[in-house]
UniProtKB/TrEMBL annotation:
<feature type="domain" description="ChsH2 rubredoxin-like zinc ribbon">
    <location>
        <begin position="22"/>
        <end position="58"/>
    </location>
</feature>
<dbReference type="Pfam" id="PF01796">
    <property type="entry name" value="OB_ChsH2_C"/>
</dbReference>
<dbReference type="Pfam" id="PF12172">
    <property type="entry name" value="zf-ChsH2"/>
</dbReference>
<dbReference type="InterPro" id="IPR002878">
    <property type="entry name" value="ChsH2_C"/>
</dbReference>
<dbReference type="InterPro" id="IPR012340">
    <property type="entry name" value="NA-bd_OB-fold"/>
</dbReference>
<feature type="domain" description="ChsH2 C-terminal OB-fold">
    <location>
        <begin position="59"/>
        <end position="124"/>
    </location>
</feature>
<dbReference type="InterPro" id="IPR052513">
    <property type="entry name" value="Thioester_dehydratase-like"/>
</dbReference>
<protein>
    <recommendedName>
        <fullName>Nucleic-acid-binding protein containing a Zn-ribbon</fullName>
    </recommendedName>
</protein>
<dbReference type="InterPro" id="IPR022002">
    <property type="entry name" value="ChsH2_Znr"/>
</dbReference>
Length: 140
């Protein structure tokens, strides 16, 4: 993105509970919460473990690898700012660490995307303050 071009797409609200995730993304790291009590990772970030309800949570770097659990191809934009992106893939990724994460798949050919495909995180620096984790197909 050029420095003179503004990022016009909706941006996430970064609050104290999600700030570690977004800070890590800016550093091109995929960091997710892990419960110290039961040892399980979870996503989306929250103050209590969804598995055992402990509040003993830490942030850990994930491998950035996973597989497509489910997906759809958007052929009509979700608003004018997405018009240049169609067709694009919205997918639920099952991270190797266990949790699922909603994201975009960046693919050479969206028609080749399949459930079960292996993917790797890629970071899209959309503004100096915001980096979005997206995924690419390992077979691309």
């Amino acid at each position: 993105m050029s420095e003179t071009q503004a990022y016009e797409k909706p941006q996430p609200v970064i609050d104290p509970g999600t700030k570690p995730f977004w800070d890590a993304a800016r550093e091109h790291r995929l960091s997710i919460p892990r419960c110290r009590s039961c040892g399980k990772h979870h996503f989306y970030p929250r103050e209590l473990c969804p598995h055992c309800h402990s509040d003993d949570i830490e942030w850990t770097d994930a491998s950035g690898k996973g597989e497509i659990y489910s997906y759809t191809i958007a052929r009509k934009p979700a608003g004018p700012v997405f018009a240049s992106d169609v067709p694009y893939v919205i997918a639920m990724i099952a991270l190797d660490e266990g949790p699922r994460m909603l994201t975009n798949i960046i693919a050479k050919d969206v028609e080749q995307v399949r459930i079960g495909d292996r993917v790797t995180v890629r970071f899209d620096d959309v503004t100096p303050e915001l980096t979005l984790p997206k995924f690419t197909l390992d077979k691309d």
